[in-house]
Specification:
single chain, 427 residues, mainly alpha
């Protein structure tokens, strides 16, 4: 390892330890890590703080503003009341039904939809504490459920990436999208099975200021606003979500549409400037922005590429195809978890996995599919996007987060590898 690799890894470990300690403000550790990257010479100021102009961070920050406006409408009260009705019923059946409903919604949004997981997490955060079904038992499973379509027909992005990496490696035998969707379905089933099992392992604590042990009222107090403002706010929300979902069509414009709609809500006085500022600069946004500099430093130091090559060289020629697929899926998802770069991690490990499969005389399709999908299925560390929001908004301690997320992660990667090898036999 070079000195640059050692320094980058050390800063990453320090950041994780500070997050684990629960003694620092939520957004502080990644900001400190970014500062250390500059002091050690690993990054320039522009590189270390690139996350603050990262398109995804800008998009989420803008959408947080839109969500703050939506929370003031009567529509959100109706949606919330439906969720509260299930929460008030309490018990395991309501929990299971909520999981299925969120996963069905993910079928429309697709895997990795930023707008969808921000929406669901924001809704859960508004539900007062209820002993029958504490929201701390909902934030993690429902948050991660937004990444698992129960009916995976919206798989164009992941399918396209898989085809791309296979064609780049010289594989021209084609890839069935229907079989690819079945692999995603098996992955989602794996997540659902774990979440149903893990219900009793989830902690019981309030995540909002208001708490109590009685049944939660199915109505919530929402500031009354003129009907035209409500319609404008709902329209702003719809435009934001559609804009984010059409990212591949709209390009860069999709990243700023939530910000523009948030500005519109400020102009029509749905939100005041303080509300806009507080939501755009929320601790979770600082976490997302700060960790990107650390991710780039790890990649630029060559650390992640070195790990991938070392594993490929150590696998040998007698490894079982399932073990090969499982190892590369673990490596890719772990790299994506710690670096925050889904696509970057895929393009590091996919070529190695494909080349290894071909050298062993195996069909590389299963390995490529597992590697690509696993890039969006790490999340066992709260150092990026959705996991960071879940930890912060759910007010979990890191051991509580790990108790659910680590087994979930292993269960998902196992299910993914099984699905890939069943639908695309490597030999």
């Amino acid at each position: 390892m070079t000195m640059e690799m050692i320094l980058a890894l050390g800063i990453l470990i320090l950041m994780i330890v500070m997050i684990m300690s629960d003694k620092f403000a939520f957004g502080f550790p990644p900001i400190l890590a970014s500062l250390l990257l500059v002091v050690t010479g690993l990054s320039t100021v522009q590189e270390a703080f690139a996350g603050f102009v990262n398109p995804s961070v800008i998009m989420v920050a803008g959408f947080m503003v839109v969500m703050a406006g939506l929370m003031k409408t009567s529509l959100i009260g109706k949606v919330q009341s439906s969720m509260l009705a299930l929460v008030n019923k309490g018990g395991y059946k309501s929990y299971a039904l909520l999981l299925v409903v969120v996963m069905l919604g993910a079928s429309l949004a697709g895997t990795g939809s930023t707008g969808y997981y921000v929406l669901i997490l924001s809704l859960i955060s508004t539900i007062p504490y209820n002993k029958k079904m504490p929201t701390s038992k909902l934030m993690m499973p429902l948050g991660f459920a937004t990444n698992h379509p129960l009916i995976p027909f919206n798989v164009a992005l992941l399918y396209g990436v898989t085809v791309s990496v296979l064609e780049t490696a010289g594989y021209t035998d084609g890839l069935s999208m229907s079989k690819f969707a079945v692999v995603n379905f098996i992955l989602s089933l794996g997540f659902l099975v774990w979440s149903l099992f893990a219900y009793r392992l989830l902690p019981d604590h309030p995540i909002t200021e208001a708490s109590g042990y009685d049944e939660v009222a199915v109505t919530t107090e929402i500031e009354t606003m003129p009907a035209w403002k409500e319609y404008c706010t709902i329209a702003a929300f719809i435009v934001s979500v559609i804009g984010m979902m059409l990212m591949n069509v709209l390009g860069n414009a999709a990243y700023v549409i939530p910000g523009l709609t948030g500005a519109f809500l400020l102009i029509i006085n749905v939100l005041d400037f303080k509300e806009v500022r507080d939501n755009m600069g929320a601790p979770v946004i600082l976490m997302m922005a700060g960790v990107i500099g650390v991710a780039d430093a790890l990649a630029n130091s060559g650390f992640t590429a070195m790990i991938g090559e070392a594993v490929a060289n150590s696998l040998g020629t007698n490894i079982h195809p399932f073990i090969l697929i499982f190892i590369f899926a673990l490596l890719t998802s772990t790299c994506a978890t710690f670096t925050g770069s889904n696509m970057g991690s895929v393009y590091i490990f996919a070529p190695i996995a494909i080349a290894t499969s071909i050298s062993l005389g195996l069909n590389p399709a299963a390995a490529a599919i597992a590697v690509v999908i696993s890039g969006w299925n790490g999340g066992y560390m709260p150092v990026d996007g959705m996991p960071a929001m879940i930890l912060g908004m759910g007010k979990y301690k890191l051991p509580q987060f790990w108790l659910f997320s680590v087994p979930m992660y292993l269960f998902r990667i196992f299910a993914l590898s099984v699905g890939a090898i069943i639908m695309f036999p490597p030999s």
